[in-house]
Amino acid sequence: MRRFVGVFLPTLPTDQIRRRNGGNPTHKRRMVIAKQESNRRILTPVDDAARKLKLSPGMTVAHAQTLVPDL
Question: What is the pLDDT at residue 27?
């Protein structure tokens, strides 16, 4: 019988960037990553600190900046 395991790691990209730069992945400062999609920028992964500020993947950067002006 074959077995499959599904793993969901929503903050892996932001954690990797923090570790690569010598930071702690559990740091309380928010981190988001955006990608260009045609003529707009979209948030892809967001860390837990950004989620607490109601930011989510798929949100446009313009909308995120209205919620968090110093993003």
Answer: 64
